[in-house]
């Protein structure tokens, strides 16, 4: 059986206030095309269909069109809710939609009820574990603590109990939306930490032929049978080096796994550039990034004038501008007390001005003002001390 594993669509999300709806539509076109061109038997969507609980209408319409096209392809789709989705809203009319081959799994109480797919070699029981918010599902799973590992363990115990009652040779697939230990996060996932712990061990999925994971936005292989597909688009500059893909999984008659990455369309590449403003504007090595979305970190010791406008001349799609002045290794390693040792009040005040200006110290007129202010403070202190005697 050939499975197409994807997740974290985040329909309706923007990138630094740039709408991604067109790029998301292009991805869904690509997904449907892949279903047809690669003879996919079932599509797995491991959560975070939407970017927020109440998505914008344009995102809902995009989702609606995708469901109609998948249903028309007559290829079953199994989909779970993620931590960004409203499980109740996503699951509305799930019973009716299921008649079209779209299987929405959003209720934790039904996690042990599989979608049973069939091929020439028998049954494949496909279990959908929606995102399990520990505080909300603790009573359902009767766990002692409201913790990710405990509730996911209880859910998988239900899955294994159901699987044990099925005919021998039944293969198994689990969709889950969680932070599994060994995975590498990026800046664009919403934190799901509870009690200081967010990661669960990959061993929870032991015995399952394939675990299709969602939540982390980088495509990752935790083991042959436990994988993240990652998001189809980059949603933060921390993903600049990600290769955005879906997993094409061939599940053999005895549960063998063959996996292939299918690249997703890239609307515009990302680039993280660092250096002085002059270097970024002049270095020919940056030519390939001139049409990328750019995050620029300027290391000029003194903040240059109009840096964003000047960068935009060469990099018109600059979206983020950061400053990290290079003040030398010695200054960076010295402690605050070491930098103050042996310096006068006037020197310390001048150093402060230099620091907040990014390396530009006070001129002669400003030094005179600082000197006068310090003299006034000293006189006031002397007067107060004399009055106290």
UniProtKB/TrEMBL annotation:
GO molecular function, one term: exonuclease activity
Keyword line: DNA recombination, DNA replication, Endonuclease, Exonuclease, Hydrolase, Nuclease
InterPro entries recorded: Calcineurin-like_PHP (IPR004843), DNA_Repair-Maintenance_Comp (IPR050535), Metallo-depent_PP-like (IPR029052), Mre11_N (IPR041796), SbcD (IPR004593), SbcD_C (IPR026843)
Family, similarity comment: Belongs to the SbcD family.
Protein name: Nuclease SbcCD subunit D
Family matches, as NCBIfam families: sbcd (TIGR00619)
Limits of the Calcineurin-like phosphoesterase domain: 1-218
Gene: sbcD
Gene3D superfamilies cross-referenced by the UniProt entry: 3.60.21.10
Residue ranges of domain Nuclease SbcCD subunit D C-terminal in the record: 267-355
SUPFAM superfamilies xrefs: Metallo-dependent phosphatases (SSF56300)
Keyword GTP-binding among UniProt keywords: no
Record's keyword annotation contains Glycosyltransferase: no
Function of the molecule: SbcCD cleaves DNA hairpin structures. These structures can inhibit DNA replication and are intermediates in certain DNA recombination reactions. The complex acts as a 3'->5' double strand exonuclease that can open hairpins. It also has a 5' single-strand endonuclease activity.
Subunit structure: Heterodimer of SbcC and SbcD.
PANTHER family: COMPONENT OF ATP-DEPENDENT DSDNA EXONUCLEASE (PTHR30337), NUCLEASE SBCCD SUBUNIT D (PTHR30337:SF0)
